[in-house]
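Minutes, project check-in
Item: structure for the 338-residue chain
Input as provided by the requester:
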Amino acid sequence: MSEVKEIKRSENKIQIVGEMSELNLKDEVKDTTIRKNGKEVKVKCGVIEKADYKSGASMTIKVEPKDEGGNVRYSETVGINFYPIKEKKLDENGNVVDNSFYKSMQTIMNYDKGTRVRVDGSLVANEYASSKDGKNYDYHSIPQVNAFIVSSTAVPENDMAEGYITGVIRQIIPEIRGEEATETGRLKVELFYFDNKGETTPNTFIVTKEFAEPFTDLYENGQSVQLNYEIVSHQTNGGAKKSKAAFGRESNVTSGYTVTEYQIVGGDAPFEEENEHYVSMQQMKDAMTARQNLIDTTIDNKKKEDAENAGGKTAKKGLGRPSNVSKSATDDQEELPF
């Protein structure tokens, strides 16, 4: 049975400071619905949203954080997304009024590449179901940064791509890579955070070798915590791939791909029960049950949608046999607190 105390929305803040690299937005007048406090009104107004004909984020920001000596620590291009930004909104009394953020975004759409900006936002997930063969369906949860403020004024001098978030640790496991399953010395932390409805979403954070031991000394599965992190990327699954040359030098083409990570740089002591962001194990179990229901419903709806769109056509089949990879011991549900 659920406890009376409601789960409070997680503290979930991100700030990106750097040079604007690319915009992928369009501004169109269309019929839409604006909502607030349970009231909704249909209006025709301008809507700024991601351009359908392009892939990737709505905006990208190039950040190059520096150390105390002024040296660039790393270079990263961070993707930023937005919920559709509407020209009109509802005020506290339910009246239709102008949305100042819409006008600000119109200005931003005229920014030149290289303009320094500050983005304030939060970590969210783009979640959906899909199938490759029309039979087996997967649920995807892709982390992304959603912005609610973009400004070219009062921009800090130093670049950054940092955030902090509260939630509950589900598991802490060693990072393993390669065909020989070698431990890297880093840790993977699965944290579940909450929205304003008490619904929970997971995200995986990375603990570097430097912090691995102190992290496990302070934190364990099931604890409610606040973690501080920065967004970085690195090349993985390969390196410089040289090819022999009949004359001149060899090629230094780099293989592999770039992975974006959320690397933990610090955190508060685990929350005690009196903390407003403390979440009990019973609350977590209830939230996980609700999340599984969401996943099941999303998959069922996608199956129905695909069946209706198929129109009697034969579903595409996959290739060869199914995978024989066994379930990892670190994925044993009995070992996890919820």
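Outcome recorded: The longest helix spans residues 281-310.
No further action items on this chain.
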